[in-house]
Design the sequence.
């Protein structure tokens, strides 16, 4: 009941903030005189802070992931000169979303920045994306308020050996510069695929067994998870933008463990705080049932009496 009351209170505050956003020339509004803009911007800021306070009264997810889809289609919709401009808009949106997550108290965020199969795109687009990765990783580590003010730690996960040498240098720079930060952890998945992550983890398991570091009889899900590329707590929420209803080979193992999956009918650069907040309220109202299901699964695993449950079947 408390969550329901909170959600109504929250939606009222959020509606006021959203109307203010429109009025000051947001995605669908028209620009107003400067004095009125300042007043409404103040109202919008207060509405945002109020919404954050209300949301933080309920449970907060520890790990949220985003499939940032729709940058190119957004560029075509907005009639930008090149699709690369859509990727720039997507990066700008990412910094905003990370600020929302930080304000909400979310400790781990994973983003699908570049899929392994994206290398099959045109040389021009891949080159642009690699250039952005090189620059943006350094900018995040050096100039971002999220890093300097809030202590965000940057980790890049995936098959980074496939990346150009200068991008790998930027990755190492960003990771080393932020490694001691104690705030939110940002996992940048680049280049990444879930099947590659799982097969790589299996390869590490086999290597550890062959090297005498692990007994073959001890191989189970927990041992596999220790070797996954994306660390951190269980995935709570997975959000995909652009209206496409698929996971695109992203965090498949993690998603299977009761992750709350949401598909948003908006391109990534259009993704709004209102949409983010609705997802969070929905997750909060479902969180008890999710935890109950997780406990039931754990009890089932513990009660198994036929051999040892393994990623390879019963041993």
Sequence:
């Amino acid at each position: 009941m408390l969550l329901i009351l909170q959600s109504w209170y929250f939606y009222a505050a959020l509606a006021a903030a959203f109307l203010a956003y429109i009025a000051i020339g947001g995605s669908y509004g028209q620009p107003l005189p400067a004095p009125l803009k300042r007043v409404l911007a103040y109202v919008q800021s207060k509405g945002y802070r109020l919404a954050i306070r209300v949301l933080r009264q309920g449970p907060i997810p520890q790990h949220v992931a985003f499939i940032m889809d729709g940058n190119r289609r957004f560029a075509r919709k907005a009639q930008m000169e090149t699709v690369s401009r859509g990727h720039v808009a997507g990066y700008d949106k990412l910094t905003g979303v990370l600020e929302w997550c930080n304000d909400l108290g979310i400790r781990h965020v994973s983003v699908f920045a570049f899929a392994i199969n994206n290398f099959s795109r045109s040389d021009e687009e891949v080159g642009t994306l690699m250039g952005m990765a090189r620059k943006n990783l350094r900018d995040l580590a050096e100039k971002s308020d999220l890093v300097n003010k809030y202590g965000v730690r940057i980790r890049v996960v995936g098959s980074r050996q496939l990346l150009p040498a200068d991008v790998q240098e930027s990755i190492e720079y960003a990771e080393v510069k932020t490694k001691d930060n104690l705030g939110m952890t940002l996992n940048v998945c680049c280049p990444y695929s879930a099947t590659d992550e799982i097969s790589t983890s299996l390869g590490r398991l086999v290597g550890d067994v062959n090297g005498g570091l692990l007994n073959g009889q001890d191989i189970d899900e927990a041992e596999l998870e220790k070797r996954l590329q994306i660390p951190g707590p269980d995935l709570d929420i997975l959000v995909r933008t652009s209206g496409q209803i698929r996971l695109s080979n992203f965090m498949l193992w993690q998603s299977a463990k009761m992750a709350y999956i949401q598909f948003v009918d908006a391109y990534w650069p259009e993704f709004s705080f209102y949409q983010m907040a609705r997802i969070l309220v929905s997750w909060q109202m479902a969180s008890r049932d999710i935890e109950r299901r997780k406990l039931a699964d754990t009890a089932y695993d513990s009660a198994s009496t036929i051999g040892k449950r393994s990623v390879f079947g019963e041993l």
